[in-house]
């Protein structure tokens, strides 16, 4: 089963991400309490209403292949997932619990991330650094929420 394993917010740009049990996803803003929702203009690369996701499997592979252990809040991504290939969700709508989002682009690792963590993170997370997603319909995202993929949504409507 695909699900949300973790949620992170950083109230201020460049501050440490803080794990939380749940967060409110707000359209055209982001996650309540997160830097991009607090001040959407603070980062030229940010998209209003966006959040970022990363696969727990990518972090496991980073450790297995490169010996680099990162806690999910160190990735600077808002949502830690399990059981879903995020790279396949660009231009796809899906649900995080009851929150409807659309994958917009891969969220590749950057030098800033590597500088905050460990050498080798940039190479180790290449092509599996996560996904940026636009919030289409807001609500509460909680740890443990199911992730419903596009084909699952269509099946549910047919039943």
Notable features of this structure?
M1 Pyruvate Kinase, Domain 3, alpha+beta, 5 helices, 159 residues, eight-stranded mixed beta sheet, disordered C terminus, globular
Written description of the protein model:
- This protein has a single domain (3-158), classed as M1 Pyruvate Kinase, Domain 3 (Beta Barrel).
- With 159 residues, it is an alpha+beta fold.
- The strands form two sheets. Strands 2-1-6-5-9-8-7-11 form an eight-stranded mixed beta sheet. Strands 4-3-10 form a three-stranded antiparallel beta sheet.
- Helix content is 21%, strand content 33%.
- The protein has five helices and eleven strands.
- The protein has helices at residues 35-38, 56-66, 111-116, 121-124, 150-158; strands at 3-9, 18-20, 22-26, 30-31, 50-55, 79-82, 93-96, 99-106, 131-137, 139-142, 147-148.
């Amino acid at each position: 089963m695909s699900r949300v394993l973790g949620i992170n917010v950083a109230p201020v740009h460049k501050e440490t991400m803080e794990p939380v049990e749940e967060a409110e996803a707000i359209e055209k803003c982001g996650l309540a309490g997160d830097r991009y929702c607090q001040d959407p203009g603070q980062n030229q690369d940010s998209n209003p209403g966006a959040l970022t996701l990363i696969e727990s499997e990518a972090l496991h592979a980073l450790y297995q292949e490169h010996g680099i252990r990162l806690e999910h809040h160190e990735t600077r991504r808002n949502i830690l997932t399990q059981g879903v290939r995020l790279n396949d969700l660009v231009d796809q709508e899906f649900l995080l619990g009851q929150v409807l989002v659309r994958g917009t682009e891969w969220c590749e690792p950057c030098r800033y991330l590597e500088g905050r963590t460990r050498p080798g993170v940039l190479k180790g997370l290449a092509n599996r650094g996560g996904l940026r997603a636009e919030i289409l319909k807001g609500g509460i995202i909680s740890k443990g929420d199911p992730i419903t993929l596009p084909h699952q949504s269509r099946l549910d409507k047919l039943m």
